[in-house]
Fold this sequence. Notes:
single chain; alpha/beta; Rossmann fold; six-stranded parallel beta sheet; 12 helices
Amino acid sequence: MSEQExxxxxxxxxxxxxxxxxxxxxxxxxxxxxERIVYFGDTARVPYGSKSPETIIKFSRQIxxxxxxxxxxxxxxxxxxxxxxxxxALEREVELPIIDVVRPGAKTAVSATKNNKxxxxxxxxxxxxxxxxxxxxxxxxxxxxxxxxxxxxVPLVEEGLWEDPVTDEIAGRYLTELIDVGIDTxxxxxxxxxxxxxxxxxxxxxxxTLVNPAYETARELKSLLQEKGLESSHRxxxxxxxxxxxxxxxxxxxxxxANSILTYGILSxxxxxxxxx
Length: 277
C-alpha cells in the first residue's frame, strides 16, 4: 500500500466542547459514507462559549494532540467557539488539513441573502470574536451583520428540551430583535442549534433562510479531501470500526444523547484524561 493510499484510509478527527458537534458528525456520515470518524467531546469542560479565548485555545490544542495520536488525516473543529478562537493557532501548529464550522456557514449566508441583512446567533465567545462579521464582510462589504448571543440554547438542547414551551419562550425573547431589523438570512452559529431548528424557523418565519453550518462544513470537507487526494475510495470492510467516540466525562449521558440524534447506534464512548495531552 502506498503512503497516499494509507493516508486515504485514515479516519477524520472531529471535536466539540460536548455533544453539539454530533450534528456535524451526522452530516459527515450522510455525505461521506466511506469515511471513518474519531469524535471527541469535551464533556468535562463544556460549555466553551463562556470561556476566554486563551482557555479555548489551550483546550483545542490538547484535543488536536489527542486526535493526532489516533492517526487522523484531517481535523474538523465542530464547535463554533473553538473555530472562532483557535482555528488560526491550530492551522499554524498542526500539519494536517483543518476545517472549521465558521467559514462554510459565512460563505453560504453571503450567497443566500437578498437584502444584505444577515443574522448570527451563537455563544458569547463566538459573538465576542466578531469572526462571522469579519468573514461575511470580506466577501460582501455591503452586508449588515446582526449578532445575538443565545447562551441558554446549549443547556436547553443538552437537557433534551427540544420541543418545549420553555425553549419557545427563550427563543422568542432572543430572536425578536433580529425579526425587527428585517434579516432575511440567519446563521445557526453553534452546532447545538440545528437540533432546535424547527423552533427557530417557526419563530423567524418562512421569509428567513436558516443556514446550518454543520451541513455546509461536511460539503467543504468533501471538497477539501477530494482536492488533496485524501477521500476514501471504498467503504471500510465488515468488522471495521467506522465511528469511534471519546469524551472527557459522563460517557453514559453522552451516549444516550448521541443515540437520540444519530441513526448509527453508538455502542460505546470511552472516557480519556484530556489533560494528559
